Amino acid sequence: MQLTEKVSLLSRKIEREKAAKKAAEKLLEEKSRELYSAKQLVEDSLVNIKEKSEQDIALLQFKTYLESILLDFNQLFLQKPISNILLQRLLDDLIGIDEIKACKVRFKSLDQSGKFRSYYAGNKALINNDSQISSPLFWSNDHRQIKIIINSEDIILGSLTLVIDSPNSWQHTIEKQLLLFCDMISAAHSRQELLARTIEEKQRAESSEQSTRDFVAMINHELRTPLNGLLGSAELMSDTELSSHQKQLLSTMRQSGELLRVIINDLLDLSKMSAGMLQIVEVDFSPAKLCQMIYDIFKLRTEEFGLEFIFNYQDGIPERLLGDPDRIKQILVNLIGNSIKFTQQGKISVNLEWRAERFCFSVTDTGCGIPQDKIDTLFDPFTQVNNSSNRAFEGTGLGLAICKHLIEEMQGEINLESTLGKGTQFNISLPLKPVQTLPESISASEQNFPIETLSLLVVEDSTVNQVLIEMILAKLGVKPSIVSNGLEAIEFLDNQQVDIIFMDCRMPVIDGFEATKRLRADGYSKPIIALTASTTSTETEQCYQCGMDEIVNKPYQKEDIRKALVKWGCKLNSAVTTSSS
Q1: CB half-sphere exposure, 196, CA atoms < 13 A
Q2: Which residue has the higher pLDDT, 173 or 442?
Q3: Whole-structure pTM value
Q4: What domains are defined for the chain?
């Protein structure tokens, strides 16, 4: 091959390599641009995700803060009537978070004048007081100010106004939380009016047996419902992180709530006694477990008072007895509580034994004793050893009267021996029957049942109780659906199915009894558990007659709800297993 041809071939090869290199460089440049664009896209996405996460965290903190205030003031409003001080405290707490710049409550005067009064917190100048609204909820044009009407039974009680610096995406959460605050204030106002109406109603109550029964049932419901919110909220708060001061306040609140429960029970029991409604039930129970419960209740309390607590459970008591354990517990709690109250130093002794086919127990103290001229009247209602206004010991004077009535209803006997300045001994004997059969032990499936897998419907008209049971169920890992009356429950179940229903008994539109009847008539077979504030045998019978499967009494605790869910969840699971096999 000639030299010129070789040179020509080499030149063409070089040109091809140059072209290939140029194409490769161009491709590399294009890919570099694509890679840079992808990198920018990833960085932008990471920034957006970070901003979204920060917003979500801020929203969660904001919601948690409002919920904690709601819980705190819900308890305060249950303990105390609405006052100028409480409303101002509520506003002062609301501006404790950066997003809330100012707030105002305009509320109907608590006196007879009926005039409106305004309360402020934060930067008052930020609030636009000129805004007139015709709807229950109104946002300003810049979405910085929200105003919500507070009403009760279509009567306007006032309004709540907040100036909030937050993203527009928070609007739904803000509305939901503030509506709960307005419902809480409205419910507290309604309770005050209800209490006043109840007192007037009691004074005018007819003397007939039926009107007395209706009155007792209504009082039972209306007093236990707010008490349920108080004690239930206290239980939920005890599971949260609290400072030592908050724990002390919570302990005081729970003790006050339990004292209120005792007083309410005494008053209601007296009403039932007068109406012939106080009844004794007979169930199979373990006296040892009952007495252990009593010991646990008073062991710490006696230590706090510096008293020695001796609990002597003698051999020979049957393992199972037939009787009313709740009423026996009530008697023991009342007697031991009285001994603690009237014993400044020394000891309290409880002795339990089985003698001559009777369950016998005595409560002995080293207290101040009872004068002989007071012993004959000690079991009369509203009677105390010292009835003067400056007496040292608080109480209604109903406990011993109710104990005596309960013991007589159980065909038992009570007597006392007392020496002034040395102490008192109460002796009780009850003719209970031993039971040979042992109860079924808790199965492993019940102990380990995953209640978080259950779908629930809560039918409850009280907003306070809705929030309470939703929080209790959240602690158990369950998120329920919630409706406000029986009609809403029926309509809900037309389109959806649930495993278990918690049904309040007394509600507007359609109550729990009628709703359950209609559901059972339509073939609904899943468990329906009554949530009732009533403890009367009449209402208990009504619950079962309309088709309810179980009753959980208010005030309930998380353990009461958990046990009901485990029991009926296991039964549902067993039924499904049986049908599939």
Answers
A1: 6
A2: 173
A3: 0.47
A4: 1-202 (3.30.450), 287-434 (3.30.565.10), 445-580 (3.40.50.2300)
